[in-house]
Amino acid sequence: MISTDALHEPERTRIAVIGAGHLGEAVLGGLLRAGLPARDVAVSALPAERAHILAERYGVAAGTDDAAAADGADIALVAVPPPAVPAAAAEVGPALPEGAVAVSLAAAVPLARFEEALGPGRPAARAVTNTAAAVGRAMTALVGGIHLDGEARARVGGLFSGIGSITWVGEEAMDAVTAVAGSGPALLYHLAAAMAGAAVDQGLPPGEARAVVVQTLFGAASLLREADRGPAELAAEAAAPGGTTREALDRLDAHGVPEAVAEAVAAAAERSGRLAEDAGHR
User: Fold this and answer.
1) Counting CB atoms within 10 angstroms of each CB, which of 37, 148, 228, 244 has the fewest?
2) Which tens digits make up the pLDDT trace of 124-134?
3) pTM of the model
């Protein structure tokens, strides 16, 4: 649940979600699931049909005007694509009341560039999160701006704690966080699709294959979270010599899967850095 202390209950805290695409909608859904009243949320999205769909789906005020959505908000979550961040921030900053916080959800855009576009003195933060926010299980890394004081930091942390786990990091870590926390869910979905397809090849009906894969990954992640051993140790425990699991792991190693995963994470981190450079942010 969202921290009531962080949201200053019983006073209302109004949240704006600017540019609610897939990630913005996931965060929106997670916040509502965590108890944020729909009446306290305003959303902007393009095209107008998309805004209408979000209004119908979640019962929130939604339109196409970023400044109108931000007007009066206590926290504005700017979830537009990286190239659109400066323009969106320039609209949102002047519309926010004094003391309101703007948070960029975009990959690759440095916090200093976001702050510059918002306007002088605006409290700001940068967040890298993922679509597991929709079910309250996101991993969010946060960086605080130069004007983000302790009270505002607590508000931002409390908000994102409502959709999963948070960690405050230095901005130099954000490319790595983007590669793991931001891109990581898609890597697991890719693995899940491959496992389900392989299960079908081995004779399971598609529906049963999906159910088996989903519960297996869910159970493994739950154990990994609660166990006092690391992932390598858990894998070793499950792989008895001469058994089926050992055979499967050996085949993955023979195909260089660990190296491929390392290369995938490195490529995502490098791409995050290149996106910033291509946009002139670094």
Assistant:
1) 228
2) 999 999 999 99
3) 0.89
